[in-house]
Specification:
Distance between the termini of chain C: 45 Å
Helix content of chain C: 40-55%
Largest interface: A-B, 64 and 73 residues
Helix content of chain A: over 70%
Oligomer: heterotrimer
Structural class of chain A: mainly alpha
Largest sheet of chain A: 2 strands, antiparallel
Largest sheet of chain C: 10 strands, mixed
Number of domains of chain A: 1
Shape of chain A: globular
Order of helices and strands of chain C: HEHEHEHEHEHEHEHEEHHEH
Strand content of chain A: under 5%
Number of strands of chain A: 2
Strand order of the largest sheet of chain A: 1-2
Chain lengths: 499, 148, 326
């Protein structure tokens, strides 16, 4: 009850003219930055930091927060339209989202992404309001052993993303892990596989990898089709999702929101894990007929809801304990400190207008983003009507500039070229990029946490099984393995029996 | 013995090669023990797994029927890679305007049909758009012109 | 700053960039176009706000946009290399820090010479590290911690934000001077380290002041001491390690402004004057001190000497620990 009155109070704060304006600016910039591949919310928040000094802490935080979750809305746009994940959490959206676009259903895809994100954002805001402190405690309970087991579970689940051969998917996961290991090894400080190039000392860039494997190679493969004139069918369906679409997606959105809210609080990789866990569960749980990988709308609704819910709940550790769960939060903490506010548990009681005003503004922000994005759907669809021969050079330009903006290194552009070459060969041989990307992100984290667990426990392996969270994930991983392997085995047995 | 599934065969071989390469590269780092793993341990394990998987996939290709390797067209991938590399070179020495121009003008040739006038117009549009969004609106430190 | 002013500045930057007047290499017309302020870290670290606050003020003073150029990578080597090779016309700055002194010993080659390829201008700020322990720790003072570590015989662990960073170096110096054995558990950055420190999975962190002081103030972590020789101005109630039983212990993280080596002396002098004035400005100084950075300025000669002394101090220690990055 008290929370409700606090929320009402927060709403009052958030609805002041100044805060509404800054919320809008944040959401707008966030969407823009999310759509543009390469530059992300971190860089934008960093750039706008000095401009928040003249503002009070409330409008400053509201604007910066808007940039962050606004970017999640924007990231799905490029994933759906041109198969390029704007943020790492949008990788999963490319799987069904882009397929929908190819079949003339880009509008419903974009629409359901926006609607799903909105619903998820609203629910997640409530989660933040009511459950922030207990959820923060849970986040603290995750130790290296638990993260490791989570990663193991995640990697095994990565094969679920495979549309084709299981073995090749696992191989691609391994390839992704190896690529991810390039760079500085946290535990020993040694720079691995960098061939003496300082630019590789921090590893292969995710942005370069995603653009190469999802963007450039996709373009090249499209250009090769001599018989198909246009990539996107000219028969455009409805501009927005139909009532049928909404009905089908309802539970996907709910499930996605659930996963996102829970996984978002985990520092490091929470949002990515959320979107892809949601997709993975959806694939197994959604009622048939299923067409995941071919443009099933639930394959867009679930991950998009998950990553937006995750974006909201990732504020929890920052707001309740003053711990940043990702670099953007670290910058916001910096912004608060410059304003003279020490983030931590006392912010809720000493500066309630800040805490509740921010939470209420997330609602308003989500509403603004919905209003901003839905009309844009019509605009984006028109973009797809542009002849491909004009569209693809534009894609090249955005990929190349985008990757440069990450760290202002020319090297990154050459990196895209090399990776595109590799990607081209692999994709031609039907090796899928999505499992590789997951291996790329999760693999190094898995190694890091494995070695760290071993260090902290002084070589005691049992810790993986005695810690409840870790044990739970490992058991789930084994179960998942069985679930995946069993049908495959059964199919092979039937094959063998028939011969 | 006939290769029944060329796609898988070549994919398998590539995986074996990549796995072996990483194992070889990792050997220069310290291996460590199981409970104090060095930087070489994990890459070697994963590299080995990859090589094994690749071998299985390649061997399976003799037994299972699969698709043949699709045709590799030189032009789309070749021109695209060239355009991207030239973009990098141009951005470093000539600035953003020249780089975008190069990327569009060269990259357009990756497609089957090229309409020169259209391409030039597209290049102009992309230049204006890139400068407006990345340099003016977002204020990113992209050099526009060559340092003379 | 109002958004309209921000937009105005951006348009100015764009217009100026478009006209691309060749840069004037003398203090008279300096700066004649936008200035590139290279930060050796990706956005989101401690250095970022420092640089942006300063850049903001200098933009106002000079009427030219000072653009922050984040060039993270290789622990700062990429940024330093870029500035070392830049045109010495005064329009490129580097925000250097302790990595300039330590990287030459960690890496087999860094690609630049921190002494001869970079011209020192002035120190910008200094911040000590803070020795923090979880609230569940039995130690309430440095002395108690040393006793606890000695009794633990190597089973006490310290976190760091990466090999070769100041938390790591502080801990190594501490181990040496206190005569204790501690296990090093490195993390990717300060955030994850703090996540394991709070519940007590690791025992101590010598974290950067800006990232740990808020947590110490709110009681989420317990602060034992600072690593500087004198007490921090922003935390005068926290003792130093030196006065808590290890006299002579000192580690100070620092940020300083550098320019390419052959930049004309009069431009360096002008930048020095203006930067020192900017750092004293009421819009700048308090903000930096809020995040725990103590504004400190110096002459180019003083900075050069400081860099040499840092190299002389940390080189032998790093060699002794035997860390080699590549």
């Amino acid at each position: 009850m008290e929370t409700l009155s606090n929320l009402a109070f927060g709403l009052g704060v958030a609805l002041s003219w100044q805060n509404v304006v800054y919320c809008f600016i944040g959401c707008f910039l966030g969407t823009l930055v999310g759509v543009l591949p390469g530059i992300g919310p971190v860089a934008t928040v960093a750039m706008l930091l000095p401009f928040t000094f003249g503002l009070g802490p409330a409008p400053a935080l509201i604007m910066l927060a808007g940039i962050y979750y606004g970017a999640q809305y924007g990231g799905s746009t490029t994933a759906i339209l041109v198969n390029i994940p704007g943020e790492s959490s949008s990788v999963v959206t490319t799987l069904d989202g882009h397929q929908m676009a190819r079949r003339g259903r880009a509008g419903p895809a974009l629409g359901i992404a926006a609607i799903g994100s909105f619903v998820a954002g609203c629910i997640a805001t409530l989660v933040v309001a009511f459950f922030a402190p207990p959820l923060a405690e849970i986040a603290l309970k995750f130790g290296p052993a638990d993260y490791f087991s989570l990663m193991v579970f995640g990697l095994i689940a990565a094969v679920v993303l495979a549309r084709g051969s299981l073995m090749k998917a696992i191989a691609m996961v391994c390839f992704g892990i190896l690529l991810g290991l390039v760079g500085t090894d946290v535990n020993s400080g040694v720079i691995r596989f960098a061939f003496g190039l300082p630019e590789l000392a921090d590893g292969v860039g995710f942005v370069a990898l995603a653009m190469a494997f999802f963007g450039i190679t996709d373009v090249v493969l499209n250009l090769e089709h001599k018989d198909k004139q246009e990539v996107f069918t000219s028969r455009i369906g409805s501009v927005l999702p139909t009532m049928e679409d909404l009905r089908i997606s309802f539970w996907s959105i709910v499930r996605g929101t659930g996963f996102g809210s829970l996984l978002g609080i985990l520092p490091g990789g929470g949002a990515l894990l959320a979107s892809f866990a949601a997709y993975m569960i959806e694939k197994k749980v959604a009622k048939p007929p299923r067409s995941f990988g071919e443009g099933d709308i639930r394959g867009v609704a679930a991950p998009e809801s998950a990553n937006n819910a995750g974006a909201q709940t990732s504020f929890i550790p920052m707001l309740t304990l003053g711990i940043p769960s990702n670099p953007t939060m670290a910058l916001m903490i910096g912004a608060l400190m410059i304003q003279g506010i020490a983030p931590g548990p006392q912010v809720m009681t000493e500066r309630p207008e800040l805490f509740w005003g921010l939470i209420a503004s997330m609602w308003i922000g989500n509403l603004m983003l919905l209003v901003l994005n839905l009309p844009l759907v019509g605009l984006w669809i028109k973009l797809l009507a542009v002849p491909y021969r004009l569209l693809f050079p534009a894609i090249f330009v955005f990929c190349c500039i985008g990757v440069y903006t990450v760290d202002n290194k020319i090297f990154d552009i050459y990196e895209i070229a090399v990776l595109s070459g590799v990607g081209y060969v692999l994709l031609k041989l039907d090796c899928e990029p999505a499992p590789m990307v997951l291996g790329f992100i999760l693999g190094p984290m898995m190694e890091e946490n494995l070695r760290r667990t071993m260090m902290i426990s002084f070589g005691d392996l049992s810790v993986f099984f005695t810690r409840p969270i870790s044990a739970a994930f490992l058991i789930a991983a084994v179960a998942l393995l069985a679930v995946i392997a069993l049908p495959a085995l059964r199919a092979k047995r039937e094959e063998a029996m028939q011969e | 013995m006939r290769i029944r599934s060329p796609k898988d065969f070549w994919a398998g071989l590539i995986f074996v090669a990549i796995g072996a390469a990483f194992i070889a590269l990792a050997s220069q780092y310290r291996l460590g023990t199981m409970h104090r793993m060095g930087p070489a341990m994990f890459p070697m394990l994963v590299g080995a797994l990859l090589a094994v998987l690749g071998a299985i996939i390649a061997l399976r290709s003799f037994v299972l029927d699969g698709e043949s390797v699709p045709r590799f067209y030189a032009r789309p991938i070749g021109v695209s890679l060239l355009a991207i590399v030239l973009f990098g070179v141009a951005l470093q020495w000539l600035g953003l305007v020249a780089a975008v121009a190069v990327l569009v003008l060269v990259g357009a040739w990756a497609a089957r049909e090229v309409r020169p006038l259209e391409t030039v117009a597209l290049a102009a549009v992309m230049i204006v758009f890139s400068v407006a969004v990345f340099v003016w609106l977002l204020g990113l430190p992209l050099p526009l012109w060559p340092d003379m | 700053m109002q958004p309209s002013r921000r937009r105005f500045l951006r348009l100015t930057a764009g217009a100026v960039a478009l006209t691309a007047a060749p840069s004037v290499a003398n203090a008279q017309g300096f700066p004649s176009r936008y200035v590139r302020f290279v930060i050796p870290f990706p956005p989101g670290g401690t250095a970022d706000p420092v640089a942006r606050v300063l850049a903001n003020r200098l933009s106002e003073v000079w009427g030219q946009q000072v653009v922050v150029d984040n060039r993270g990578g290789a622990a700062g080597n990429i940024a330093a290399q870029a500035v070392a090779q830049a045109e010495p016309d005064g329009h490129t700055f580097l925000l250097g820090s302790i990595f300039l002194a330590t990287n030459p010993f960690l890496f087999s080659s860094v690609g630049y010479d921190p002494v001869t390829d970079l011209a020192p201008v002035t120190q910008v700020g200094a911040f000590p590290n803070l020795m923090v322990v979880p609230n569940s720790s039995p130690a309430r003072s440095v002395g108690e911690f040393i006793a606890h570590a000695k009794a633990g015989r190597g089973r006490v662990s310290f976190a760091s934000n990466g090999i070769g960073g100041t938390p790591h170096l502080s801990a190594e110096l501490f181990k040496r001077m206190a005569g204790v054995e501690m296990l090093h558990v490195p993390y990717r950055g300060g955030g994850p380290a703090i996540n394991d420190l709070i519940p007590g999975r690791v025992d101590v962190l010598f974290g950067t002041l800006p990232s740990t002081i808020p947590l110490a103030r709110t009681g989420t972590l317990r602060a034992l001491a600072v690593t500087s020789a004198k007490r921090a101005r922003s935390a005068p109630d926290i003792p130093t390690i030196a006065e808590s039983g290890l006299p002579g212990f000192e580690l100070l993280g620092w940020n300083a402004l550098f320019m390419p080596a052959r930049t004309p002396a009069d431009i360096i002098a002008k930048v020095h004057r203006d930067t020192v004035a900017a750092l004293a400005h009421p819009a700048v100084r308090p903000k930096l001190e809020e995040i725990g950075v103590e504004v400190t300025t110096s002459t180019p000669a003083e900075l050069a000497a400081y860099l040499q002394s840092e190299m002389a101090k940390w080189g032998p220690i790093i060699r002794q620990i035997g860390i080699k990055v590549d």
